[in-house]
């Protein structure tokens, strides 16, 4: 079968590899991936990896490079192991890609995403979503209803990252919010903040294409270019008594963005790190203290959030499909996928790969 595999920095190939063979284990599910998103983590691997992909066998999964990519995907169930009861052949599913022990310290508490042994389908697992077939655990598949399309099912994973940040910030009906950065996660965070009931949403984004998309996603959002506007002053002008926003969501993973959020949030407000920082950041800890703020860090998402997001999508509350700007074939994954998304002036937001 054909599969998109990461071999090394700037080395992604469409390879012919053996399809899953042999009898399924009791809790295995054989799937046919349908659509798979290119994630920021995939881009980091392409530009600077290997980072989270395994050069030596992963301590829990045993996977190692070359790695079949893809952890944001929808699929069809083809076969199931003898102990699988949550899905059957023919079901359409969304993949929850985190794999980890069920019985370690975090697993016993249901905090599977925090396990020190955690692996991820498409990054540190023998299979990934950019292939014609894959084998996953029964806990990795969530059956979606007819009210959720294949595109939407593929978008649940990044939507989970965004919603977790909004949850951690305590965004609720009437909240005032700053979203700093409108990449795919920032755009989904914008949608999640509106779904949570935020009444005033300010968006900071330097890319004009992404500012336009943000305005289309939430027409009443206040969208600014941080290169042209002092974001903290703009926030003061648009919040009660100029105190700042209740919650600032940092979706870029850059020092300047994090510090802008700290300046924009009100006293006793919350700053949430949603974007992953790839290098240490210098911060004004005294400002944090003077403002008595809460700084929330997030890693992945609780794996139990899939039904909630699927329900929000089916009800029209979380239109995650609106950030998808292109769908491509595997043969175009580098030129029209990775390289396109790395163009800082590009108009594309989320690109999906037709897996099969």
Automatic annotation (TrEMBL):
<dbReference type="InterPro" id="IPR020843">
    <property type="entry name" value="ER"/>
</dbReference>
<dbReference type="Pfam" id="PF08240">
    <property type="entry name" value="ADH_N"/>
</dbReference>
<dbReference type="GO" id="GO:0046872">
    <property type="term" value="F:metal ion binding"/>
</dbReference>
<dbReference type="InterPro" id="IPR036291">
    <property type="entry name" value="NAD(P)-bd_dom_sf"/>
</dbReference>
<keyword id="KW-0560">Oxidoreductase</keyword>
<dbReference type="InterPro" id="IPR011032">
    <property type="entry name" value="GroES-like_sf"/>
</dbReference>
<keyword id="KW-0862">Zinc</keyword>
<keyword id="KW-0479">Metal-binding</keyword>
<dbReference type="InterPro" id="IPR013149">
    <property type="entry name" value="ADH-like_C"/>
</dbReference>
<feature type="domain" description="Enoyl reductase (ER)">
    <location>
        <begin position="7"/>
        <end position="353"/>
    </location>
</feature>
<protein>
    <submittedName>
        <fullName>Zinc-binding dehydrogenase</fullName>
    </submittedName>
</protein>
<dbReference type="InterPro" id="IPR013154">
    <property type="entry name" value="ADH-like_N"/>
</dbReference>
<comment type="similarity">
    <text>Belongs to the zinc-containing alcohol dehydrogenase family.</text>
</comment>
<dbReference type="Pfam" id="PF00107">
    <property type="entry name" value="ADH_zinc_N"/>
</dbReference>
<dbReference type="GO" id="GO:0016491">
    <property type="term" value="F:oxidoreductase activity"/>
</dbReference>
């Amino acid at each position: 079968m054909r599969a998109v595999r990461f071999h090394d920095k700037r080395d992604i190939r469409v390879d012919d590899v053996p399809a899953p063979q042999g009898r399924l284990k009791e809790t295995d599910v054989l799937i046919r991936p349908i659509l798979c998103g290119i994630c920021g983590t995939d881009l980091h691997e392409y530009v600077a990896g290997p980072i989270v992909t395994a050069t030596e066998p992963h301590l829990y999964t045993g996977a190692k490079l070359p790695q079949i990519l893809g952890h944001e995907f929808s699929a069809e169930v083809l076969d199931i192991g003898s102990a699988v009861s949550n899905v059957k052949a023919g079901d359409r599913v969304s993949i929850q890609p985190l794999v980890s022990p069920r019985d370690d310290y975090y697993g016993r508490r249901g905090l599977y995403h925090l396990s020190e042994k955690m692996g991820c389908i498409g990054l540190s697992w023998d299979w990934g979503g950019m292939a014609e077939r894959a084998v996953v655990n029964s806990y990795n598949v969530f059956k979606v209803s007819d009210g959720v399309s294949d595109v939407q099912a593929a978008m649940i994973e990044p939507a989970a990252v965004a919603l977790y940040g909004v949850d951690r910030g305590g965004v609720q009906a009437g909240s005032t919010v700053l979203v700093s950065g409108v990449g795919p996660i920032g755009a989904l965070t914008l949608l999640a903040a509106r779904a949570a009931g935020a009444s005033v949403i300010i968006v900071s984004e330097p890319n004009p294409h992404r500012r336009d998309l943000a305005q289309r996603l939430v027409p009443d959002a206040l969208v600014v270019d941080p290169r042209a506007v002092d974001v903290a002053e703009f926030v003061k002008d648009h919040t009660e008594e100029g105190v700042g926003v209740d919650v600032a969501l940092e979706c870029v993973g850059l020092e300047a963005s994090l510090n802008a959020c700290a300046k924009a949030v009100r006293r006793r407000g919350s700053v949430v790190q949603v974007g992953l920082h790839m290098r240490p950041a210098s911060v004004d800890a005294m400002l944090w203290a003077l403002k008595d703020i809460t700084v929330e860090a997030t890693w992945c998402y609780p794996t139990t959030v899939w039904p909630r997001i699927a329900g929000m999508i089916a009800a029209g509350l979380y239109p995650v499909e609106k950030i998808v700007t292109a769908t491509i074939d595997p043969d175009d994954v580098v030129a029209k996928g990775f390289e396109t998304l790395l163009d800082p002036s590009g108009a594309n937001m989320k690109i999906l790969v037709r897996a099969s």
